[in-house]
Write a structure and sequence with these properties.
There is one protein chain. This protein has about 280 residues and is α/β, with parallel strands linked by helices. Helices cover about 45% and strands about 20% of the residues. The strands form two sheets. A five-stranded parallel beta sheet has the order 3-2-4-1-5, sandwiched between helices. Strands 6-7-10-8-9 form a five-stranded mixed beta sheet. Helix 2 links the parallel strand 2 and strand 3. The chain is globular.
Length: about 280
């Protein structure tokens, strides 16, 4: 039986490809690519010639079955997308899930990820992040998702397309709060790479001041919600509640936390629900 290699490729600068990725692409029997024309250019740059199989969002289920047949026949296949890591807001997860359930060995060949690149250069010191990917295209659906994410006490990370960037930022400002800080990571590793931070209240103005900043591919990082500020409880009460939740059922933990800290039980209960959701 063959092996499916999940291979990360550059998001802009071709020199970001890893030595292991190159060795893998040279060694496999075939390469399953999101866009065979795009991947042909990458392979040509590094002098690699391989059979290419189109695997994109419109044919991923059907392609998974064909790939499984080849893997079962002993062929090894590399799975790539146009840029970055397969399965991360790109095709790939369906194929990986299908062949793993069939007993095929899946080997990750890690490398470039726009999410990690953006976080590493943002200077954000908060612990943890939630990567959501692309928000819905319609305003109502987008605002509903943002409302659900509003209280997350970790950095929120999104991808966004240039034709929706202004509308999305306006909705973020309205739903998440104008004081929240945003970091734009635009065109990472490319010629016009931009990393810029400001309050959400100033973000649309910054975008509209230079239409060039509305072009390209975006990673957006929004600072975490301030649980203490939103719930108006002390740091000590938050610490006590977290400790109790690790050992007791939610209602019992809330009652005991209220007795110990003298905070309002209803406020502690709402906070406990959010903490439970974040840990699931």
């Amino acid at each position: 039986m063959g092996i499916l290699y999940v291979v990360a490729t550059p998001i802009g600068n071709l020199q970001d490809i890893t030595l292991r990725a190159l060795e893998t692409l040279k060694a496999v029997d075939a390469i399953a690519a999101e866009d065979t024309r795009h991947t042909s250019g990458l392979l040509s740059h590094f002098g690699i010639s391989k059979k290419l199989i189109a695997v994109h969002e419109h044919n991923e289920h059907q392609s998974a079955e064909k790939l499984l047949m080849q893997l079962n026949a002993g062929e090894s296949i590399a799975l790539v997308t146009d840029a970055g890591t397969p399965g991360i807001s790109d095709p790939g997860a369906v194929v990986v899930d299908f062949v793993r359930k069939a007993g095929v060995k899946v080997v990750p060949v890690p490398g470039v990820s726009a999410v990690i690149a953006a976080l590493s250069a943002s200077g954000i010191v908060q612990n943890g992040f939630l990567f959501h990917g692309f928000l819905p295209a319609s305003g109502a659906a987008r605002r509903k998702v943002l409302e659900a994410l509003k209280s997350q006490a970790v950095t929120l990370v999104f991808y966004e397309a240039p034709h929706r960037i202004v509308d999305s930022i306006a909705d973020m400002c309205t739903v998440l709060g104008a004081e929240r800080r945003i970091t734009f990571a635009r065109e990472l590793t490319k010629t016009f790479e931009t990393i810029y931070s400001c309050a959400l209240s100033d973000a649309v103005t910054w975008l509209e001041a230079d239409t060039n900043q509305q072009r390209g591919e975006f990673v957006l990082l929004i600072e975490a919600a301030n649980i203490k500020q939103e719930e108006e409880i002390s740091e000590e009460a938050l610490r006590v509640l977290r400790l109790l939740l690790t050992e007791l059922p939610l209602k019992q933990a809330v009652k005991l936390a209220a007795d110990i800290t003298h905070e309002k039980k209803n406020v502690l209960y709402e906070l406990a629900l959010k903490l439970k959701q974040q840990s699931e």
